[in-house]
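Justification of computing resources. Each target in the renewal requires a structure prediction run like the one illustrated here; the chain below, 135 residues long, is used simply to show the kind of job we budget for.
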Amino acid sequence: MEHSHERFTAASRSWDRPLVTVPALVGVALVGGQLPSFSTPATLWTLGAGAVLIWLGLDRRVSRRPAAPRLPAGAGWWLLPVAVFALFEAVTFVADAGHEFPTFSRLMDPVLEHPTARSAAWLAWLVAFWGLARR
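Resulting structure tokens:
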């Protein structure tokens, strides 16, 4: 009986390897990069891809990577610049500061106009999300 369970587990994880997941993530990123920014299809594609990755992360059939070692106590200070940046982004977005104090997303708009750059950003997002889902 144990032997059939091991075979089922091995068969169900046959897709969970770089030879399968990397082309799948690249394909999703290429489709997502071709969609117009802030359109309904792009929003639905993003929500769908995120939902699938969340589902895979919660599923027990995905192989897990070991947890990262704990950071030293001084590493928390690196959160200060991130928090200041996030606060600046939020304030300029809410205040609609315009071109005087542009948000990071507004500065990235000229770069992300090109489908190739959008696909690369999509791929970076998917790889980071997939890494979190496997933890």
